[in-house]
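Re: that chain you flagged

S.,

Sorry for the slow reply, it's been a week of failed gels. I finally had a moment to sit down with the sequence you sent. For the record, here it is as I used it:
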Amino acid sequence: MLPNRRTFLAATAFSFTARAANLHPIRLGGPIFLKSDDPKLLAKEHRRLGYSAAYCPAVELSDTARIRAIQDAFAAENVVISEVGAWKNMLDPDAQKRADNLRYVNDRLALAEAVGARCCVDIAGSFNPKVWYGPDPKNLSQEFFDATVENCRNVIDAVKPTRTRFTIEMMGWSLPDGPDSYLKLIRAMDRKAFGVHLDVCNVINSPERFYRNTDVIKECFAKLGPWIISCHAKDLQWVTEYNVHFLEVVPGRGQIDYKTYLSQLAQCPQDASLMLEHLSTTEEYEEGKQYIFGRGREAGVRFIL
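Prediction finished late last night. Pasting the structure tokens below so you have them in one place:
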């Protein structure tokens, strides 16, 4: 016998309530454009913009007083420091540059630990001698994978973090380039302080993944969810040319399934934040933020405001 309308609506409401009960509020963050060095004013500006997560303000590892001031000011506003960026090539073909870069990454992880950031993030690097993040045939090799394991272990073992995680982003033309290769890296790393920084757009490196980005998002969270510490927010648009060209755009102007992205993020076992990036103006960040809030409402996802 087919259910009547009342039975159907009751079952639907129960299903939505049960699903919503498993969703925790999301912390959204992004760059701010306030010209100030005062940690209190910077923290309050994040709150004014509706952000509850932040990129680490500029500070030197040796400036312990400012590090403490940043911690106190952002904690008072319930804004977490989501990430400290390292952004150096840990696999630079030049031995001296590689050594210098690794020392810098060590310092950035130490800063993340000192300021209480959720993570320090870099990419694995590249064997490209001209562009630090550029493509190279060896970027998908066993040599690249083994060197990345060694680099990440050395960084973690040098700093010995206890409250932050060292993470790397997936890239479309170097390892890890998807959830399976990242999972392989986690297992090879064998370090509790190693985590995942997820940028969904970086995983979309083929027409199949672009068309099936909903499935790709679900696969990333299904396989990597327990290790995801922070995520990036942007969108991808396919520019029609004679070859494949994906363009980063403001969230909402592309084809990334944000309802799925947000609902999956809200089910992570840990409080992983979502950080807007790579936009040009305050207006673009506002547009992206409002789009994400809107898609979140449609998905039954709440935000920490």
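What I noticed first: Confidence is low (pLDDT under 50) at residues 1-20.

Talk soon,
D.
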